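Q: Could you fold this chain for me?
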Amino acid sequence: MKHTLLSRSLAHLLVLTLLSVSGFQARAQVLEINTGAPNTPLYAVGPIYLSSTLFYRYSRFAYLYTQAELAAAGIIPGTIILSTGWMKSTASTAAGPAVFNIYMKNSSVAAYANATEIWANLNAGSVLVYTNATQSIPATAEPDYIDFTLNPPFTYTGGSLEILTEWDISAAPAPIATGAFEWVNTTVVDRIYASGNTSFQASLSSTFNNVSMDDRRPMIQLTVEVPTGTQEAMDAPMGLWPNPADGILNISNASGAPLERVEIIDARGGMALSESPNSVATNLQLDVSKLAAGPYLVSINTSAGRVVKRVTLK
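A: Sure. Below is the predicted structure, expressed as structure tokens.
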């Protein structure tokens, strides 16, 4: 499913349908990650590098998404990622054939803080979740998402998520595209490495050959499934009140599983508040009086797993 650019103030959640998968119910959802301030569309941020000169036929990109960003978008441990898409702002096409690969991995990396990084290091431990040796890119609305169905689907287990892309259109005749691929992106610090050239480069850069791409990352949407059998069993006994909250927020876990860590995440994916109760507490009262009014996600870690709930602060 594709949709036009929505408000960037929150990571949006679109419920598509209820699917029966291997005997249990799962919710299929399209989630958009748009952390950071909107920036002008740019070819150099990927996931495919095609500038107006159409000179470079090879590119590699690596993108980092932190646990806080993912939780703000509704992606929790156990989420199954079915497809990924990036928003292209131009209608340009590429007939191919091109080779396009997408890799994913669960990670403990907190930032892409180095000026450069070796592709082999970035790709180590990743899973090839999409490959097409005859890839073409069709015309799209301006802007609109281009989606890629993963095979196999990828299970997010917690921590950060790294997504890497690899593009090779060397076999295509010139011109390799009808124009530049400009990608909708946001400003977010230390979340991208890139390379584009006449051959694959062993090292990726945070600025590449375009300084303006530094601290920018393309908009992404993920189609995911959250198995409801496990999630609803944990979610049902978890109480959170009042909602909307004004000053004080109460949390109680009627299942008896101790609350290990509670994090309140703002609309941009930032950590607004974090608290670790004592080892046996099943109830917690949080002072949220210093937080700005608006919507938040409350990530509640217990000995039985994680529950994410939404709350509005007055």
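A (continued): The longest strand covers residues 94-107.
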